[in-house]
Amino acid sequence: AQKVTQAQTEISVVEKEDVTLDCVYETRDTTYYLFWYKQPPSGELVFLIRRNSFDEQNEISGRYSWNFQKSTSSFNFTITASQVVDSAVYFCALSWQEYGNKLVFGAGTILRVKS
Amino acid sequence: AAGVIQSPRHLIKEKRETATLKCYPIPRHDTVYWYQQGPGQDPQFLISFYEKMQSDKGSIPDRFSAQQFSDYHSELNMSSLELGDSALYFCASSLPLMHGYTFGSGTRLTVV
């Protein structure tokens, strides 16, 4: 079965703190794709990153970084020096077919950043 | 850059009415997907189209149907609306191998 688990339902931090959002996935396929999306209160889904299963390099984009570890089936997301504008729901998602892929989402983590 | 366009942004319907949601994918994207996100839930896959043919189907109610037209836009038709159909409906489009997977801004459907 294909599954994504985001065990943290809600996280609250104070501005400028670092925060890590956990994502654990399950799939039997060797070729799969992992995504992170941000959903602010306005409701749209904002793409953050896409990673395929053959690329285990960690990635940094500004204050965002991602740690992909196939050995533990995890794809964690860290925000450094959090800001109030980072407050949103963050979804981790998995896709595993070559064409016509659908995304399976985790339940999401609500991040609240207080000033 | 062009994005995925969904219309309308908001829709209010009464129970048992019919609703039609439209999606215009990014040009040259060959696959369109529909998702439903209930309040406090994660998005759930409904259906997808590859080159105008249905390619995959999720937990889409029989009351719902969808199609993709020759100009690649897609429509999600929902009949006999129920209160539980109130949700955000997202359309997404992509290139092969999941490149450029992009969501539209969504249509918020409220059934009263």
Characterize the overall form of chain A: globular
Radius of gyration computed on alpha carbons of chain A: 14 Å
What string gives the helices and strands of chain A in order?
EEEEEEEEEEEE
Helix content of chain A: under 10%
The biggest chain-chain interface is: A-B, 23 and 26 residues
Number of helices of chain B: 0
How much helix, percentage-wise, in residues of chain B?
Answer: under 10%
Question: Can you tell me about this structure?
Answer:
The complex is a heterodimer of chains A (115) and B (112). Chain A has strands at 3-5, 10-14, 19-21, 24-26, 33-39, 46-52, 59-61, 64-69, 74-79, 88-95, 104-105, 109-114. Chain A is mostly beta strands and 115 residues long. In chain A, strand 10 and strand 11 form a beta hairpin. Chain B is mainly beta and 112 residues long. Helices cover 0% and strands 51% of the residues of chain B. Chain B contains no helices and 11 strands. In chain B, the strands form 2 sheets. In chain B, strands 2, 4, 5, 6, 9, 10 and 11 form a 7-stranded mixed sheet that branches. In chain B, a hairpin with a 2-residue loop joins strand 5 and strand 6. The mean pLDDT of chain B is 94.
Task: Produce the secondary structure layout.
The complex is a heterodimer of chains A (115) and B (112).
Chain A (H helix, E strand, L loop, with lengths): L2 E3 L4 E5 L4 E3 L2 E3 L6 E7 L6 E7 L6 E3 L2 E6 L4 E6 L8 E8 L8 E2 L3 E6 L1
Chain B lengths: L4 E3 L2 E4 L5 E6 L6 E7 L6 E7 L2 E5 L6 E5 L5 E5 L8 E8 L7 E2 L3 E5 L1
Parallel strand pairs in B: 2-11
Antiparallel strand pairs in B: 1-3, 3-8, 4-5, 4-9, 5-6, 7-8, 9-10, 9-11
